[in-house]
Amino acid sequence: MFTSSEAFSSFSVDDIDKAKRFYGETLGLSVTEGMMGNLEVRLGNGAQVFIYFKPDHVPATFTVLNFMTDDVEKTVDELNARGVTTKIYGDEDLADMPPNDEKGIMRDDEHKAQIAWFTDPAANVLAVVAASV
Fold it and tell me: Domains of the chain, with CATH numbers?
């Protein structure tokens, strides 16, 4: 039914202006104002995410957006230099996974993956991911 239709993901924030600055300036993504003053964020692969204001916003308790990278360590260093905290989980939060290092990078040698999580200004969880490292 939807094999040939375009699709996009969306999630809410509690402050559109903070989200616009974070996604546009901090993360360096293309951000435009869309319908009803909400944000359209263009990702590197051409996909689009719709970010909308919700007055009673509750942050997602799961990762809403993953950014693939060839070098998680370098990307984490760049995020940290821009004021983004990447150590948001303690080892007790990731009980079924390998522990995070001091930068918040989870290194799973068995599955050849590295992941570091961080949050946007509305406390939605985002991640940088490298697979097959």
Answer: 9-131 (3.10.180.10)
Residue 55 in tokens: 């007055």
In whole angstroms, give the CA distance from residue 52 to residue 130. Answer: 28
Higher per-residue confidence, 74 vs 133: 74
The more confident residue out of 107 and 65 is: 65
SS (H, E, C) the chain: CCCCCCCCEEEEECCHHHHHHHHHHHCCCEEEECHHHCEEEECCCCCEEEEEECCCCCCCCCEEEEEECCCHHHHHHHHHHCCCCCCCCCHHHHCCCCCECCCCEEEECCCCEEEEEEECCCCCEEEEEEECC
| Residue 89: pLDDT over 80 | no
